[in-house]
Specification:
Length: 437
């Protein structure tokens, strides 16, 4: 349903400017953080925010411009690569609107951050690069004041000669200085506890998007937000966003910061709930790295948390590929982590990727062999086919096709529920795109 979010302060005329987000489940974490950043900005707290469903998005934009008569509408699109085509279609429709001069199209997210011209050449006005909590409110302020973007960090745009201008990066934020979601608008979600990744895996966008300097939201601030959530809801499941939940607060993945994890989990455990609260640590939308699975991290999870499963990143069963993708751990460490975690009673979901460009059929068989070994230990395999994401070392690479005999086995496993994930959709899409070239 369409929602106009209420605002607490009136600093501008009600119809001067409005913000419309093309809201979808795939982008909620980004949108909640961006809306939260507007809530704490002293000059922007009153601006009406509209969140129509994707199917009603264009109709709502038209209503705000044609009936409500907004003088300026900032249309915000956050997207990853799989959403590129649909968002380009939206931009095309906005470009045809009779009040196009009143619309500012701001794009952000993984794909625009890596390839801003893909959207700017289609009609987007500004691309926010990387994290947006600091940059996005600065962009909105400049749109309101109709000031130049020439000194604005963290953005890209086309100049009057249609040349791509990429500004220097903005300063990385301190996570404690920004809300993890949008409390004033009652948009709540998983708590981001870690941002960035020091591992430079060749397939992953995280370092280029959010930096390879790892930042942590402090336990005290997380517990504060946890208390807030429990004051608003009778029931709440605490879930966390982190590329390695067991690495929270640590300088090395193989040396978890046990005291910091304990402070975080025990503090949330001690909070009072009206009816029920549960804590899920090391599960989606987080995962854990094999070398961070230790007796200490497992003991803390058993002591304070409610999850009976963990999500473990393995990615390949080939030692050669493991080194080439710069994963930073061995095949043996994957098996050791699974054995240790299962001895504590956890069920393990293991992430794998097939189709790395350097992969041979022998490498794929090694991955299949490791999958079989882990399945025999009670694991479930979450399979992916490699997507050459912009901003990664594989951005321009061609994934290796899945060998016919392996493809047959993977399809059988998918059909009987032995493995799960969107690998078949990814494989069909990527191979179709390769045939088009």
């Amino acid at each position: 349903m369409d929602v106009q979010l209420s605002t607490a302060k009136i600093l501008f005329s009600e119809k001067d400017i409005g913000i419309v987000f093309r809201y979808s489940r795939a982008n909620i974490y980004s949108y909640h953080a961006l809306i939260g950043s507007l809530e704490i900005h002293p000059q922007l707290t009153n601006i009406p925010i509209f969140i129509p469903t994707p199917v009603n998005f264009l109709a709502e934009v038209d209503r705000l411009l044609s009936i409500e008569r907004y003088k300026k509408l900032v249309v915000c699109l956050s997207l990853h690569t799989f959403q590129l085509d649909e968002n380009i279609s939206v931009i095309h429709a906005l470009n045809l609107h009779p009040y196009r001069d009143k619309i500012s199209i701001v794009v952000g997210g993984p794909h625009p951050s890596a390839k801003p011209k893909d959207l700017l050449s289609k009609g987007a006005n500004i691309a926010v690069l990387g994290e947006g909590e600091k940059t996005f409110p600065e962009v909105i302020t400049k749109i309101i004041n109709e000031t130049s973007f020439s000194s604005q960090k963290g953005i890209a745009f086309l100049n009057d000669q249609d040349e791509l201008i990429i500004q220097p990066p903005n300063d990385l934020i301190n996570l404690d200085d920004f809300p993890p979601f949008a409390p004033d608008h009652e948009f709540y979600s998983a708590l981001e506890i870690t941002r960035g990744c020091r591992f430079l895996c060749k397939y992953c966008q995280t370092p280029s998007l959010l930096g390879n300097k790892v930042r942590y939201r402090s336990p005290q601030v997380i517990i504060k937000w946890g208390k807030f959530l429990l004051s608003k809801r009778d029931n709440w499941d605490f879930r966390f966003i982190s590329p390695n939940a067991f690495g929270y607060g640590s300088k090395r993945a193989s040396m978890p910061n046990i005291s910091m994890i304990d402070e975080l989990l025990s503090g949330l455990k001690d909070l009072k709930a009206k009816k029920r609260k549960r804590i899920f640590f090391g599960t989606f939308p987080s995962e854990v790295r094999p070398e961070s699975v230790t007796e200490d991290t497992l003991n803390l999870t058993k002591k304070y948390c409610d999850n009976d499963n963990l999500t473990l990143g393995a990615q390949t069963g080939s030692p050669r590929i493991m080194k080439l993708i710069r994963r930073g751990h061995s095949i043996e460490r994957v098996v050791e982590a699974v054995d240790l975690a299962t001895s504590f009673g956890f069920r393990i979901n293991v992430d794998f990727i097939i189709g790395f460009p350097e992969e041979t059929e022998e490498d794929q068989h090694l991955t299949l062999d490791l999958c079989k070994k882990l399945i025999a230990k009670g694991c479930k395999v979450h399979m992916h086919y490699l997507i050459p994401l912009p901003g990664t070392d594989y951005a321009k690479a061609t994934p290796t096709p899945i060998a016919p005999d392996i493809l047959k086995i993977l399809r059988k496993w998918s059909n009987d529920g032995t493995i799960f994930g969107s690998w078949q959709h990814q494989y069909d899409l990527i191979t179709r795109n390769i045939r088009r070239k």
